[in-house]
Amino acid sequence: MVRLRTSACAALAGACLLLAAIPAAAQVNFSGEWSGRYHEDQPDRVPGEEPGDFSGIPVNDAARLFGDSYDVGRHSVLEEQCAPYTLPYMFFGPNQFRIWQDVHPDTQELIAIQMYMGTYQQRRTIWMDGRPHPPEYAPHTFMGFSTGEWNGDTLTITTTHIKQGYFRRSGVPASDRTTVVEHWMKHGNLLSQVTIATDPVYLTEPYIRSQEFVQMERGNTNWLYNCEYAMEVPRDKNTVPHYLPGRNPWSGEFEGRHAMPREGVRGGAESLLPEWKPGAAAARPNPAKNGGFSPTVQPAPVPAGDVRAVKVQGNVYMIVGAGANIAAQVGDDGIVVVDTGAAGQSEKVIAAIKGLAPGKEIRWIINTGPTADHVGNNEQVSKAGRTVNGNQAAVVAHENANERMIQRGVADAARPYNTYFEPSRDFPFNGEPVVLYHDESSVHDAGTVVFFRRSDVIATGDLFRTDSFPVIDVAMGGSIDGTIAAVNRLLDLTVPSKMLQEGGTYVIPGHGRISDEHEVVWYRDMLVIIRDRVKDMVARKMTLDQVKAARPALDYEGRYGSDTGAWTTAMFVEAIYKDLTR
Amino acid sequence: MSRGLVAALAVAGAFVFAWSGLSAQRGAPPGPPLTPRQAAPIDLTGTWVSVVTEDWRWRMVTPPKGDVASIPVNGEGRKAAQAWNAEADNAAGNQCKAFGVGGIMRQPGRLRISWQDPATLKLEFDAGTQTRLLTFDRAVQPGAEKTWQGFSRAEWEGPGIGRGPEAPPGPGAGPAGPPVPGGGGQGLRGGPPPRGRAALQRGGSLKVVTTNFREGYLRKNGVPYSEQAIITEYIHRLPAHPNGDEWLNVVTVVEDPRYLAQPFYTSTNFRREADATRFAPSPCKTDPPLPVATGRGGRAGGAGK
Description:
The structure holds two protein chains of two kinds.
Chain A: H1 2-21, E1 32-37, H2 42-48, H3 61-69, H4 87-90, E2 96-103, E3 110-117, E4 122-127, E5 145-151, E6 154-160, E7 165-168, E8 172-174, E9 179-187, E10 190-198, E11 207-215, H5 253-257, H6 262-265, E12 308-313, E13 316-320, E14 326-331, E15 334-338, H7 346-356, E16 362-366, H8 372-375, H9 378-384, E17 394-398, H10 399-408, E18 418-420, E19 424-429, E20 432-437, E21 449-452, E22 457-459, H11 480-493, E23 506-508, H12 517-539, H13 544-550, H14 554-560, H15 569-581
Parallel strand pairs in A: 4-5, 15-16, 16-17, 17-18, 22-23
Antiparallel strand pairs in A: 1-2, 1-11, 2-3, 3-4, 5-6, 6-9, 7-8, 9-10, 10-11, 12-13, 13-14, 14-15, 19-20, 20-21, 21-22
Helix pairs in contact in A: 3-14, 11-12, 12-15
Chain B: H1 3-25, H2 36-39, E1 46-50, H3 56-59, H4 75-82, H5 86-91, E2 110-117, E3 120-125, E4 130-135, E5 151-157, H6 197-200, E6 205-211, E7 216-217, E8 224-225, E9 230-237, E10 247-255, E11 264-273
Parallel strand pairs in B: 4-5
Antiparallel strand pairs in B: 1-2, 1-11, 2-3, 3-4, 5-6, 6-9, 7-8, 9-10, 10-11
């Protein structure tokens, strides 16, 4: 009887365990090592695309111009040699990846699905715990920020915060406003992945693709991606390989070689449907700004009137929502502030700064330039601070900034009274060197770039921004060549955290999101390309109106341009034209 | 093994069986077994248009003879592709070889899906005016004659079988239903239910295995598949895209011991259309390839810019 009871209990316990092991709502487990099958577009995906092929992509004219201007030599630029594919392309190129799950040790709830990709050694986290996407000012990465949710056996993933890259590595661009929705399905050892990319800058409609991966039974040892940049083609820093509009010598080669109609090779949404036939009219022009199509998944902007502080790295924070970005470095010595934002929000700005280091005084204020959106709260923030001598916090700037503020009629109390004249100035604060760099001419002649050397963070002022073309004020001493030279110096200071172009030195732009070297490189490339186009037009004796009509910035207008507001695309082009013709 | 242990295991086994049965019946009204149509975890019906974003140069135009890029043909497959002769096909009444089951999904066109009867799903393609019947009835056997579309046996897969084809919420919709504190009695030993539990119990896919077809072409330019091949498809209706688009995704695996060196994987995407007004049947017809240009310069558009 005792034996019976023991056996019965054991069996029942086993049954209970069995029941417990039956998941109430089982979710598919994608864990394992997977290898791609390249049975669609294999020549594009493995050996690499040929220039001039836009077929199958709902591109707009901005993307076409970008692709037509693209010179593969751009990959020989030092900072671009080891730049990984971004997510919109990553699964199309040669790739193998490993997937595993992170579960909460107590609740066994799935927290995240992790991926490691052999190509460029990329690590990706797909958050499954319901967390929101970061705000728009957060840094972007090559793999972006991903969240997932289950729809039955389908895992649906939404990714934002992706760096600039390509839909095809022959130069079909994908902007940093691209969002990607993925659907993963598993059938035995087959993983099917559908990606739907939305890019308001370069696409006119969502771009869907799908691909298959097979689980590797034996795995593979080739998981590392060694990339070290080297000077492959000696060239001046002001040179970025590209072709001027209409002068790409390879244009037309692709369709001829592969017996394809040019009107189809140019891509566009209309060419993707069955109605399209060879001989149809050439792809209809469509506006750079994407017609009426707008993405539905975008990180939320900072609400109006909301001033927020976010840690960048080391001792440095960025404060957003008060006009231009504000940087603050905090520590035992107190607080040094870079810029004070636009007038009218001084209380919130001061509260945000002091909230970073309660009990610590604001000791220094550095102005990166003289414009109102950067210096609007100088007086109030200064009065809220105190130097070690008991005075209000000192405002530091280049002497030219002081002069420009005087010209603008800025009150004495709001102007810098600790100015410098030399190309650079440095001082120690909170245990790290703080270095100020001045360029005689960049977007104006009064700029200062602030480098927190140990924290490895740079506050650039309006030399670099991610929300518009640079505001080159020719009347205030600005120039396109000076701006390019200053951005190149910025690139001398930035160092990625590893050879694969991500992290490392973080850059706080005058306006826009936290960036790293990758964003600065693309910005430099954009400036050089547009400068070269305008310079060529000037050499061809084109008038300003003709230059504007030719839209030399078309491929960047959807990202940085504007038809309205204080700084339009036309004003940017005019500034370059006037600078190059004076 | 003692009689007691056997008895205990029997009790436990019955318990497990009962649980499983209950689980299978959960949400289903008592009555006769559900038909495949009633059990459908997803609704595939409607008109869908192929959006050709992949293999464009091989799907939207007829590629040159011998262009087998991307397809894992073996030596015999390559040789057969080189021997492609469209005129001979037409003369022999074989103009539909590129519209057979191995190639029809890749033809640009519209696909209309409906239930022919409660156990047969009908797929109509306007390209080549082709019809495929997918049978869920195990009693139905293939006929003696091989056809372009062959004999397709279908079965639902996934957690939503019998729960109805409720459209998944799509990304951004968040977990379905409010969180329920405590999952006791649901196999969770008192812990919280999984996040988005209701979403886990929805959806599914359709698996289709096709045999008994005539030899045809994987690609318009005569890259072959043989009658010995087995074609397996997984048909997914994807969660609605945030912009409202509805997508159908068809994964096709062709295993052909005669012409392929390894399984051939493709996946094809269709966007749902509001109605069938643009469904325009056309006969099987393959345009000849465009001539390959030598040297630089596009053929149809001159020498580029």
